[in-house]
Amino acid sequence: MASIQAIKNEMQTEETPTVNVEKRFKIWIASLILLMVVGGGAIAYRAIEGLAVTNLNNFVPWGAWVAFYIFFVGLSAGAFLLSTLIFVFGMYQYEKVGRYALFTALVCMIVALTFILLDLGRMDRAFNAMTYWNVISILSWEVRFYLIYKVLLATELWFAMRKDLIILAMENKGWKGKLSKFLALGSTDISKEAVKKDHRWMKILGIIGIPIAIIGVHGGTGTLFAAVAAQPYWNTPLFPIIFVVSALVSGTALLIAMYVIQRKARGLDVDLPMVKALSTLMIFFLVIDLGLEFYEFLVAGLSQKPDKMAVLSVMFTGPYSWSFWGVQLFLGAVVPIFLVMSKRTNKSVGTLAIAAVLVVIGIIGVRFNIVVPTQIIHPLKWMPEGYYAPNLIEWLSSVGVVAMGLLIYSMGAKALPLEVSDEEVMDHV
Amino acid sequence: MITEDANKLLDRFRQKGEDILGGSKYSTALGLNMAEDARLLSQGKMSEEQFVQKYEEKVSKEFNQHLAMVEEPKKDGPRWGMVIDLRKCVGCETCTVSCKAENLTPPGVSYNVVMVEEKGTFPNVNRVNIPRPCMHCDKPPCVSVCPVRATYKADDGIVVQDNDRCIGCRYCMVACPYGARSFDFGENYDEMTSYGDVTAPEHGMDRGEREKNKTPIGTVRKCNFCFHRLQRGEEPACVETCIGDARYFGDLDDPNSVVSKLASSPRAFRLKEEYGTKPRVIYLR
Q: Hey, are the CB atoms on B217 and A50 less than 8 Å from each other?
C-alpha cells in the first residue's frame, strides 16, 4: 500500500504544476501543430503532384525520406533494446526511462513507416506490400516484421502500464481517468501477484522482441541494403551489424535527451547518476560503432577495389563531405565523447543532454551517408555521376512528419502513466 | 550402242539395297520397312510415337536393342536474346531515339542509352560505343528484391514489369547492376502538341491518355524487348532501326539462330559477368 500512496503523491505533484509549465506545454503543442500544418502542406503538394516535386531522380532514386526512415527504425530498435536491458536483463537502475523507451520505440516506428509511405511512388498501393509476398525479397519480410514488432511494443507497453492505468482510473475522475479506464481493457487486479505476472509477461515479450528487433527489424533493414550486390559500398556482411550498433547508439542518445528535456521542461529534478550511467553506455556503443566503421573503411581502402573507392571518395571529398567529417564524425562522435568523458563537463545534466542531442544529429548524418553517396556513383563506370540534395518540399514534409511524431509522443507522455516513481524502482532493485 | 555398254558397265557397279541387306544377319524386310517409315517420319507424315510403337517390339527381338522416343526437354516458344556488335556500332543513338519514339517514354525515362568508352592517349586512342538496353538477366537481381512481385522473369526470357502492381518503392532501381530501370516521375514533353494523347502499347496494352497519378506514372519502367512488336512478329525497335545493323535479335534457345551462333563467338562477352546475373544481351567486342 505504501508504494501506491507514493505513486498517488507523485501524481498529485504532477497534476498541480505551476502555471509556467502548463503554458510552456501549450506553446510546445501549438508550435508542433503549426509545423505539422506547414509540413502537411508540403505532403499534400507531394501527394497531388507526385514525386516529381522532389529532387529525387533516376540516378539517385532513394533520398532524404529513406534516410529518415532508417534513422527512425534505428531509433526505435535502439530504444526497445535499451528497454530490454531493464525488463529482461534486470538493470533496474535505468527503470525510470523504461516505459518511455517502449513508448518512444512505438512512436519512432510510426514515424519511420510514415516516411516510407511518403517515399512510395504509388502511396495508394501501399497495401500491396501486405497482399503480395515475395519470399526472397528482404523488403517483403521487413514489412511484416515491422507490423509484428509494433504489436509487440504496444502489448509490452500495456503490461508495463497496466497497474498504473487501473490506479489512475480509480483516482482520477477527469478525462485522464476515463482514458485510463478504457486503456486498462477491463483489467482490475493490482495485487502484488498480478504485478509480478505483468513483469513476467514483459520479460517474455522482451525476450521474443530481442531477435525480432535485432534480426528482424533493424538488422533486417541493414540487410535490405547489404544484400544489394550492385552497390559495393553496402554489400558487406558488417553492414547489418553496424546498423544494429548505430541503432543502440541513437536509441540510447534519444532517450537521454528526451528524459532530460521533459523533466527540465516540467520543472522536475533529473536523476543525474542515471543520466551519467546512460551517457557512458551511449559512448560505449558509439565507440564500438566507430570501430566497426573504421574497419569497414580500412579494409575498403587497403583492398583498393575501384567501385568501392569511388563511393568512399564521394563520401570523403565530395560536395557533401562536410556531412561526414562535420556532422557524423565531429559533432556526432568527437564532441560527445569529449563531453561525456571529460571530468569538467560530465557533472552537468545540461552538457550530457547536449552530448546526447549531438549523437542523435550525428546518426542522421550516418543515415544520409549510407543512402546517398553510393548512389552518386552509377553502377556502370561509363555513366556520369548523379547528384542529389533534398529540396524544400522534402525538408518541410520531413519536419511535418517528425512534428507529428513529437506530438504523438507529447500527448502520450501527458496522458499515459509513463513515469516510474523512485519507490517503484526501489521495489524491483 | 554406247548407252547400252554404259548401262551394262553401270549395272556391274550398281549395288542393290536388298543384296547388301541380304548379306547382313538381320532381317532384310524389317530394315527396308524401317527405312521407308523413317522417310515418312522425316516428312512429318508419321509421328515419332507411331514409329516407336510400330517397331519397338521387332527391334528388340531382332537387334536386341531398345527403341524409345528421345526425351526432349519441353519447349514452348522462343527465349529471346540480343547480340550487339560493338565493332559495328557507330554511336549514333538511333536505338535510343527509336526506343523513345516506339515506347513514348517521358522525360528522364530511357530504356536504352549508348555509353562511350575512350581508351588510350593520343595518338593511340580508341573509342568504343556501348549501347545498353535492359539485360533481361536470367538471374535478375531486380526480381529477387521486389517486395510485391511486380517484376518477374517471363517464360520467353523477358524481365517484365507489372506497372499495375508496382508500388514505386524503387528498390529494383537500386539493385540493378546496370542502371537499366527508370522511375516515371510523371513529367511530359509539354512542348510537343498532344504528347500525352498517344500512349505506348507497352505489353500490348493501350492505357489511354497519359494523366496525373495514372499508371505507369509513379511506377518503375523498363525495356521489355518491345514485347508488343514481338507479338506482331516484328523485331524490337532498336534492332530494326540500327543503321549499322549492329544489333541481332532472336531465340537464344535455338542453336541454329543467328544470335545463338554469334553468342558462341570468341568475341562474345556480357556486362558485369562476375555478378552472376546471366544477361540475355550479349556483346561482341
A: yes
